[in-house]
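Section 5.1 Outputs to date
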Amino acid sequence: MNQKFAVIGLGQFGSSIARKLSLKGSEVIAIDSDEEKVESIKNDVAYAVTMDSTDKRSLEAQNIQDMDAVIVSIGANFQAMLLTTFLLQELGVNRIIARAQGVTQRRILEKMGITEILQPEEEVGKNVAEQLFNPGVLMCMSLPDDYEIIEVQAPKSCARRSLDAIGLREKYQLNLVTLLRKINDEYHIQGIPDAGTALEAEDLLVLFGKSKHIDRFIEINS
């Protein structure tokens, strides 16, 4: 049975979520008060509607309480985001995922009992900072307890060396999630390489571990 999702707020972030959910086979209702935004996505989702999400009756009319989850991605109007979230709680929506911009908004949502909070701007900021500090870093995802998943260009000193010789786990306490290798000008996932796999100069490593251990690996091998 296909899952049903509603995405409220169709800026770049919300629209992207709605389209990806739809592509995965979910039934998606896309909601925004801006008719132009609704028109731009109507062909990509099951249903797109122009409405005021701070109107409880309008939400009820969309059977919002029957959704498997509702994503509130209203970015420009914090008051509307809060009121929408509150109404969804009143209507008994099982799962609410809300977008926060900054620490204060996150704390308010937490006080309301929202446990799934998205902060895309913060993640982008962390990525940019990491890339400026370490130009070889292509992607960085922060996790609880100071862990990270990071995509990094294989350091030059690691080229033509086996994973066993580099000692990712033993020396650096890092786990290699996967390896991407350039084949015919395109990168392809190599699954989970074994210890004897030798790295090539253009390989991309997806690593999991503590931030300090990742920094140490990059610093030593750069």
